[in-house]
Write a structure and sequence with these properties.
The protein is mainly alpha-helical. The protein has 3 helices and no strands. The chain is elongated and about 80 Å long.
Length: about 100
């Protein structure tokens, strides 16, 4: 009986010590204080922007169908299946083809 209790107590102690040994996330501490890293400038030369104005389209076709937001279909907490997401996307594409 005491061996079982000792084994369970040891197991709990080891489990807690592993989670405490994970360490601190110093990047998260720095970002929360506002010590964000400065963005790096690109080292490659960029192309010059065109100086000619763009031609504006007078008759732009506006599509009333919004793109669907698909639920998560993978992982331990998946809300749907990949097949259901493909069906939703197919219905969306059909609606776009019909309305636009």
């Amino acid at each position: 009986m005491s061996r079982t209790i000792n084994a369970m107590a040891t197991l709990m102690l080891v489990t807690v010590s592993f989670s405490a040994a994970g360490g601190q996330d110093f990047n998260a501490f720095g970002l929360s204080r506002g010590d964000a890293p400065e963005p790096q400038s690109p080292s490659l030369p960029t192309k010059a922007l065109p100086t000619q104005p763009r031609e504006e389209k007078t008759e732009a076709k506006v599509c009333a169908v919004e793109k669907p937001i698909l639920p998560l279909d993978h992982g331990p907490r998946a809300q749907t299946t990949p097949y259901e997401n493909k069906v939703r996307m197919r219905k969306y594409q059909e609606a776009v083809a019909k309305n636009c």
